[in-house]
Amino acid sequence: MLVEIDIYEFKKFTILILLSCVNWRRNLQSLVAQTMKRSHGLRLELGTLFSQKEKASAHFEGLSGCSSSSNSKSLDSDPSLDGRFRRFSPSSLPRIRPGNFRPKAEPRQECTTEQRHDIVRPYATDAMSAYNEATGTTYELVEPGFLTSVYIGPCFLHHIDFTAKKIEVADALEEMFFSELTTRKGVRCVKVCKSMGPKESISGDKNNGCCYCVTYNVVQHPRGRGFSAGGAALFTDERL
Question: Hey, where are the domains in the chain?
Answer without folding.
Answer: 1-49, 113-201
